[in-house]
Amino acid sequence: MAIFLTKESRVLVQGMTGGEGRKHTRRMLAAGTDVVGGVNPRKAGQAVDFDDRVVPVFGSVADGIRETGADVTVVFVPPAFARAAVVEAADAGIGLAVVITEGIPVHDSVAFTSYARKKGTRIVGPNCPGLITPGQSNAGIIPADITRSGRIGLVSKSGTLTYQLMHELRDIGFSTCVGIGGDPVVGTTHIDCLAAFQDDPDTELIVLIGEIGGDAEERAAAYIREHVTKPVVGYIAGFTAPEGRTMGHAGAIVSGSAGTAQAKKAALEAVGVKVGNTPTDTARLVLTLLDTVREAPRA
Question: Active site includes 190?
C-alpha cells in the first residue's frame, strides 16, 4: 500500500511539451508511472514520442480526464500560469495536483490552494519535488533509482534532503516519499502526511524533515502527541544558520527564538520523536529504532 500515489494512478502532465515537462515525463515513464497524457491548449491533438511510448496531448485537463480516466496531474507550467493551471485541474475534478513550479507569487498559492481544497483536490507543493511510491509510480522530479520499495514513510520540506534520506536508507526502502515544498503556503502539510502514514498498514516508521522558519514542525509535534502511534524520526535543516538569515526556501525565515532548529527539535523530542543532528545521524536513528521495534515482543 502507499499514500496518495499508487501503481493505479493515471497521470497527466500540464506543460509536458516544454523542456522541463518533457524531460521529467520521460523519467516518470521510465520509473513505471502511467503517464496517460499531456495538456497544452495550443498543441491539442498532437502526441509526444518517448522512446517506446507515445503520449497524447490534450487541449484541457477535462479532455484528458474524459479520454483517459486520469486522476493525477503534475504541473510544470511557468509561475505566471500556475494559478490558472491548478484552477483548471480542480474544476475538472482531478484528485491530486502535484505543483512542481517554483517562484509562484504567494497570493497565487493562497488562492489556488484554497480553491482546490473547496473542490476536493489535494495539492502537493508548490515548489516541491513531488512524490514517489518506489516501484509503483513517480509524480514529479524525484530520482527513482536511489531507493526501493519498503516500509518507511517520508515527508519533507526539502527536496535535496528527501533525496539524501532516500539514498541513506535505500536498503530499507520506502512506502511513499512526499516532498511537500518549502514555500510559506503549501497544499499538503506534514500533518496531512502523518495522518496518512499512520493509517497506512505498510508504513512501519515515519521520517519527518523540516526546516527553520514558521511553525509547521511545532504543529506536527502537537499532532504526533495526540494521533500518531508509529515511531517517528525527525531532522530539522538549519542548525548552523545565523539568526535572521533567509535560507533557500521562502518559508525559512527565523524570528527570535521561534522557528529555530533548536526550538523545533525540542518540540519534537518532547513528544517522543528522535531527532538527528545530521541527515546521516537521522538515518542511523531510523535503523536503530527499526531494530528496536522489530525485536520488541508482540502484545
Answer: no
